[in-house]
Automatic annotation (TrEMBL):
The keyword Transmembrane helix applies. One of its GO terms (molecular function) is transmembrane transporter activity. Keywords: Membrane, Transmembrane, Transmembrane helix, Transport. It comes from the Eukaryota. Belongs to the major facilitator superfamily. InterPro entries: MFS, MFS_dom, MFS_trans_sf. PROSITE patterns: MFS (PS50850). Residues 26-493 form the Major facilitator superfamily (MFS) profile domain. It comes from Dentiscutata erythropus. This is 22677_t:CDS:1.
C-alpha cells in the first residue's frame, strides 16, 4: 500500500467545524450508524441457534459471523485510506448503503448458502462504519471537545451492545429471526439522511487519479489469504481429514499470503499492538457466538433469556472501555502495559472459570464469570486503541484505526473457525454413541426439546461436553495476550492540561 503524503490528502471535514443543529444531526446520524455495527455483533448472537436450526446447518454456525467478518476484515485496512482519498462523507454513505443492502437480503434468505453470501455483502459495508464514525468526530469538533463527543458515540455503542442480545432473542421468540436484520433498515436510513444533508464534504477532483492510489494488490492478497485459512479451519476434521491435501494446501497458501501482506504493508507493523488486537478479536467474537448456544442448548433458555444472560458480558465490556478512557484522560499514574496486563488476566481467569460450566451451573456462576470476561475484553480493546492513536498524527487516525480493527476482526474470523471446528467435531463425537431417534439431528438446537426426557438429558450433556472443549481453547488465546502485554513497554498516557477530559 503506497504511503500518503500530506499533499495527497484532500482537505477534510476538519476544515469546517460544525455547530448547532448541524452538529446535532450529524452526531445523531453517526450514533445510529454505530448502533448498526454494535447490533450486528450482538443481536445476531442470540438469533444464530435458531437460524442454523431452521436451515439445518449447525456445522456452519461459525459462518454467520465468519462470512461477515471475512469481508469486513478484508476491507477494513483500506477504509481509512478511502476516507482520506474520497472524503469521509462519501465513504461512510457507501459503507452504510452496502451494509443495509446485505441486511435486507439476509432477512429474505431462503437457505444457508444464500444467507452466508448476503452476510458477506453486509460485511463489505460494515468494515467502515465503526471506523469512520469515530474518525468523523475528530473532524467536526475542536480537539478539546473530541472526548466529550466521542463519549456520546460510545454511549450509543454501549447501550446497543446491552440491548442487542435481548432484542435478538425477542425477535427470535416472538416474531422471526429475520427481524434481527430488518431492524437495521430504519437506523441506516436515519444515518444516510442526516449525513447527506448535514455533513459537509469537499468536492473531489482527479477521481481517476485517486482510484489509482488504491492498494489493489494488498486488498487481493488479504482477501485470498483469509479465505485460504478460513476454509480449512472450517473443513478440517469434518468434511476432510486434517492431513488431507485439500486442507494443507490452502492453509499454507494463506499463511504465505499473510506474510506477503505484512511485507507489502510493512509500515503498518506496530508490535505488539497488532497481535494483542488479533487475540482480542479471537476471544470476543467467538465468545458471543458460542455462549448463546450454551444457554439455549444446555440450560434450555429461550432466545430472549439467552440475550438477557449475555447482556452482562457486553455491559462489562462497555463499562470497562469507559473506565479505561477516563483513566487515560485524567491520570498518568497507570501505563498502557499495566492496563493490558489487567485486562488479559481478567480474561484468562474468566475463561478458566467458564470451563467449569455444565448442566447444573447456577446463575451466580454464569453471571459472575461473564462479567469478568467482559471487563477484561473491554480494558484490552480500549487500551490498545488508545495506545496506538496517541502516538500518531491526526491525519493518520482513520488509517491506523482501520488497521487495528482489521487485526481485531481477522482474529475474530479465525477464532470463530477454530472454536466452531472444535465444537462441532466434539459434538458429533459425543452424540454418535447415543441411541437417538432418526428424526433427530444435532444440526438443530431446537430439536432437543422434542426428545424424550432421558434421551434429552444425554444430548444436553453431549452439548455441554462439546462446549467445554471449545471453551478450553479460549485459555491459551488469553494467556498469550497476557504474555504479549509484558513487551508493550512502560508507556504512560499523555497527560496535560490541554488533554484533560479527552477520551478517544
Amino acid at each position: 500500500m503506497a504511503s500518503i503524503s500530506n499533499d495527497d490528502i484532500p482537505p477534510t471535514e476538519r476544515s469546517t467545524l460544525l455547530h448547532g443543529s448541524r452538529l446535532f444531526f450529524v452526531m445523531f446520524g453517526l450514533g445510529c450508524s454505530v448502533c448498526l455495527g454494535a447490533l450486528d455483533q450482538t443481536v445476531v448472537a442470540t438469533s444464530s441457534p435458531k437460524i442454523v436450526s431452521d436451515f439445518n446447518a449447525l456445522n456452519q454456525i461459525s459462518w454467520i459471523a465468519g462470512a461477515y467478518l471475512l469481508t469486513e476484515t478484508s476491507l477494513q485496512p483500506i477504509y481509512g485510506k478511502l476516507s482520506n482519498i474520497f472524503g469521509r462523507k462519501v465513504t461512510i454513505l457507501f459503507s452504510v448503503f452496502v451494509f443495509e443492502l446485505g441486511s435486507l437480503l439476509c432477512g429474505f434468505a431462503q437457505n444457508m448458502i444464500s444467507f452466508i453470501i448476503f452476510r458477506a455483502i453486509a460485511g463489505v459495508g460494515g468494515g467502515g462504519i465503526l471506523i469512520l464514525a469515530d474518525t468523523i468526530v475528530t473532524d467536526i469538533v475542536s480537539a478539546k471537545d473530541v472526548g466529550r463527543y466521542q463519549s456520546i458515540i460510545n454511549a450509543f455503542y454501549g447501550i446497543t451492545t446491552v440491548v442487542g442480545p435481548i432484542l435478538g432473542g425477542i425477535f427470535t421468540d416472538h416474531v422471526s429471526w429475520r427481524w434481527s436484520f430488518f431492524i437495521n433498515l430504519p437506523l441506516g436510513a436515519i444515518t444516510i439522511i442526516t449525513v447527506t444533508f448535514s455533513l459537509h464534504s469537499p468536492k473531489q477532483t482527479a477521481l481517476l487519479k485517486n482510484i489509482k492510489r488504491l492498494d489493489v494488490t494488498g486488498i487481493a492478497i488479504i482477501i485470498v489469504s483469509t479465505i485460504c485459512i478460513l476454509l480449512p479451519l472450517n473443513w478440517g476434521g469434518n468434511a476432510y481429514a486434517w492431513n488431507s491435501p485439500i486442507i494443507i494446501a490452502p492453509f499454507c497458501v494463506g499463511v504465505v499470503g499473510y506474510a506477503l501482506f505484512g511485507f507489502v504493508e510493512s509500515y503498518v507493523a506496530v508490535e505488539p499492538i497488532a497481535p494483542l488486537a488479533f487475540l482480542h478479536g479471537m476471544s470476543f467474537y467467538s465468545f458471543i457466538t458460542y455462549v448463546p448456544i450454551y444457554f439455549q442448548a444446555v440450560k434450555g433458555y429461550s432466545a430472549t433469556m439467552a440475550g438477557v444472560a449475555l447482556a452482562p458480558y457486553v455491559l462489562g465490556f462497555s463499562v470497562a472501555t469507559a473506565i479505561t478512557g477516563q483513566l487515560y484522560s485524567r491520570t498518568d499514574k497507570v501505563t498502557h502495559r499495566l492496563l493490558c496486563l489487567i485486562g488479559s488476566a481478567f480474561m484468562t481467569i474468566s475463561f478458566g472459570l467458564i470451563t467449569m460450566w455444565n448442566e447444573n451451573s447456577g446463575p451466580g456462576e454464569l453471571i459472575g464469570f461473564i462479567i469478568i470476561a467482559g471487563l477484561g475484553a473491554g480494558i484490552i480493546f480500549q487500551d490498545v486503541l488508545l495506545c496506538c492513536q496517541e502516538s500518531i498524527e491526526h491525519k493518520d487516525i482513520a488509517i491506523t484505526t482501520s488497521l487495528l480493527m482489521f487485526f481485531n476482526t481477522v482474529g475474530g474470523v479465525l477464532g470463530n473457525a477454530i472454536i466452531g471446528n472444535i465444537f462441532y467435531t466434539k459434538l458429533i463425537q459425543f452424540s454418535s454413541s447415543l441411541a437417538l431417534p432418526q428424526s433427530f439431528t444435532p444440526q438443530s438446537v431446537y430439536c432437543i426439546q422434542f426428545l424424550p426426557a432421558e434421551t434429552r438429558s444425554l444430548v444436553i450433556h453431549a452439548y455441554s461436553m462439546a462446549l467445554h472443549s471449545s471453551f478450553i481453547a479460549f485459555i491459551p488465546m488469553c494467556g498469550l495476550s497476557f504474555i504479549l502485554s509484558l513487551f508493550m513497554g512502560n508507556i504512560k498516557p499523555s497527560y496535560s492540561e490541554e488533554n484533560l477530559g479527552r477520551v478517544i
